[in-house]
Amino acid sequence: MPQDDEREERSRSERPPSHLRSDEPRDTQPTEEGRGIGSFGRWFAIASELPCAVISLMLVGQVIGQALGGLQGGNTGALIGVFAGLLFGTYSVYVTAQRLQEAEERSRIRRRYVPPIEEILEEPEFLREPKPEEE
User: Per-domain residue ranges for the chain?
Assistant: First the structure.
């Protein structure tokens, strides 16, 4: 029975690994989203929002403060800008994280199958008139 063993081994080697088979439902196949370095960009964007907001509003506050109050106004404007940037940046991070979470939840929802319009408009077999059989 060595031939049977060879056939079985060959059929195993020809089949794709279980995580690549298309006969399994889509939900059971492992996804790469959220793993490894692929999701790094999303988290880097969120992490950089707060420092960018603080620094940019600090500079804006400093420029406006110097224009209105001289050197001392620049320091005061920079402090006001830092606090405004902290509040704005924190809110921005919160909103971004919420939107990313909503998008992730929407992508996990399994979509229903909707047939093409041609299939919908096609007359079902049980309503079709039987064809006369040729003798």
Answer: 49-108
